[in-house]
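User: structure tokens for this one?
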Amino acid sequence: MKELKDRGMWFVCADMDGTLMYDMDLTGPIGLVIGNEGDGVSPLVKKNCDMVASIPMKGDIDSLNASVAAGVLSYEIVRQRMKKG
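Assistant:
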């Protein structure tokens, strides 16, 4: 992570306690960090991330499958980049 951060990449980890993904600028060089379904992102890795993003969920859903979370965040990154032009 350090080497990529030194080259200008920002790391965003997915966590329910993060900032709503719609309220973040995800248009730059982004590396996504997705934890496992049971424990999420480890505290050490989360500490080294630049931003923590949450995915909005409604109803009784309290977490997403890791691959689904990666897909949702990836879509939001692409959406923001396309909007920016």
